């Protein structure tokens, strides 16, 4: 029997829940070619939501072309341009032959080479030029509009892990280049997804920044406990097992309704349940999940300074005023001036998220693990 919960991948229809409003908003933005920025911490469901919106939109419209790419591995503008060109050419090429002929037609000076990917078994284009020494941005960044015009289609380019560009060495110059090309494209929209809220906000909120007011910004929220409850109960029922509404609610609460972890905990729980789920099964599944991440969490803790570790413990203890003198001395945080430095370092590592005065540990299992292992001060 197929496990009715899925974690760590872009979801298929039946595994997907909630997000109705956001999907309508995205589809409206596709239709009107409104640029959109989607921001949330890791694994809250940005990519799954965009994939779902595209799939649904495609059943209603066929004069749109969608290009999806992930720029996680890009550390320079040149690497960005290579992925950008490659994904666009791949998208418009249904066969290996057309891949090569399209590459020759649109990006011939980038010396495209056709290779068979070991991982996917599909043909891919690799660009054989020394990208470092060639100013190629004009050709590459104008490709979507060029294709839109030639094919008489609207093009929507979805870029995942967009926060990466914040780490490019000359990021502002690069952002200016993007803006100058993208803002004039009348048949193209961009959907830019990213985690690391502070970097994304810096790129799109900073009033002096080139991409300020670039598009509609969606700060994705977690899926509510109510939605999870219905989903979990339904998935158990569909597979001949049973969990009470209260227990489903408890399950999601244990991991603070974090989408990835709710799916994972539900999966572990479902596997342990023969027919009726009990609280003991959920608790045991949670401990197993935590244990499986033990080494990863130990490594994270080892890589932090003592002050950073103590700061995380203070969050777990429910401290809100980190600059108060008793907090500083109790958690050995040094002077109040240190707090910003500690917070910045932890945000950069994606370990905490700050919204106004609220500071949270991003990973709810890491938080539970710290409470279990560390917060004994
Ligand atoms: N709408 C949803 N319904 C059910 N489960 C979901 C939903 N969205 C996300 N999930 C769960 O969270 C996991 C992570 O989702 P996804 O990869 O879309 O997140 P993401 O925000 O793109 O993550 P990252 O920042 O790492 O790219 C999914 O594999 C799934 O287990
Ligand atoms: Mg993603």
How does this structure look, described?
The chain folds into 3 domains: 201 residues, 3-Layer(aba) Sandwich (Rossmann fold); 68 residues, Helicase, Ruva Protein, domain 3 (Orthogonal Bundle), CATH 1.10.8.60; 79 residues, Arc Repressor Mutant, subunit A. 50% of the residues lie in helices and 12% in strands. Strand 3 and strand 4 form a beta hairpin. The protein is globular, with a radius of gyration of 23 Å.
Name the structural class.
alpha/beta
The CATH topology of the largest domain corresponds to Rossmann fold
- Largest sheet, strands/sense/barrel: 5 strands, parallel
Bound molecule types? adenosine-5'-triphosphate, magnesium ion
Radius of gyration: 23 Å
Give the overall shape.
Answer: globular
The CATH superfamily label of the largest domain reads P-loop containing nucleotide triphosphate hydrolases
Helix fraction, binned, reads 40-55%
By DSSP, the count of extended strands is: 9
Tally the helices: what do you get? 17
Order of helices and strands: HEHEHHEEHHEHEHEHHHHHHHHEEH
Question: If strands are numbered along the chain, what order do they take across the biggest sheet?
Answer: 2-5-6-1-7
């Amino acid at each position: 029997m197929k496990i009715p919960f899925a974690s760590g991948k872009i979801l298929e229809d039946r595994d997907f829940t909630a997000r109705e409003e956001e999907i309508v908003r995205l589809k409206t933005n596709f239709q009107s070619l409104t640029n959109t920025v989607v921001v949330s911490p890791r694994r809250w469901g940005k990519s799954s939501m965009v994939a779902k919106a595209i799939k649904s939109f495609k059943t209603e419209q066929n004069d749109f072309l969608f290009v999806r790419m992930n720029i996680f591995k890009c550390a320079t503008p040149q690497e960005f341009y290579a992925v950008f060109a490659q994904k666009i050419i791949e998208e418009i090429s249904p066969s290996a032959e057309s891949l090569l002929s399209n590459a020759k037609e649109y990006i011939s000076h980038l010396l495209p080479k056709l290779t068979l990917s070991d991982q996917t078994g599909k043909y891919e284009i690799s660009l054989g030029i020394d990208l470092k020494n060639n100013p190629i941005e004009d050709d590459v960044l104008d490709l979507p509009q060029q294709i839109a015009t030639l094919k008489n289609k609207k093009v929507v380019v979805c870029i995942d892990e967009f926060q990466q560009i914040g780490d490019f060495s000359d990021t502002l110059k690069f952002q200016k280049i993007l803006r100058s090309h993208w803002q004039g494209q009348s048949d193209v929209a961009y959907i830019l997804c990213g985690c690391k809220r502070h970097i994304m906000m810096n790129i799109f909120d900073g009033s002096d920044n080139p991409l300020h007011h670039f598009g509609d910004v969606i700060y994705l929220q977690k899926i509510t406990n109510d939605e999870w409850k219905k989903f979990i109960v339904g998935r158990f029922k569909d597979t001949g097992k049973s969990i009470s509404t209260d227990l489903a609610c408890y399950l999601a609460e244990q991991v603070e309704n974090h989408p990835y972890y709710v799916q994972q905990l539900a999966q572990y729980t479902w596997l342990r349940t023969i027919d009726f789920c009990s609280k003991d099964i959920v608790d045991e599944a949670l401990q197993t999940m935590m244990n499986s991440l033990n080494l990863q969490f130990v490594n994270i803790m080892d890589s932090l300074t003592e002050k950073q570790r103590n700061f995380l413990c203070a969050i777990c203890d429910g401290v809100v005023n980190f600059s108060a003198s008793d907090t500083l001395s109790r958690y050995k945080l040094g002077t109040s001036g240190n707090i910003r430095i500690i917070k910045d370092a932890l945000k950069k590592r994606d370990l905490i998220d700050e919204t106004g005065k609220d500071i949270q540990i991003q990973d709810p299992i890491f938080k539970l693990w710290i409470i279990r292992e560390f917060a004994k001060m």
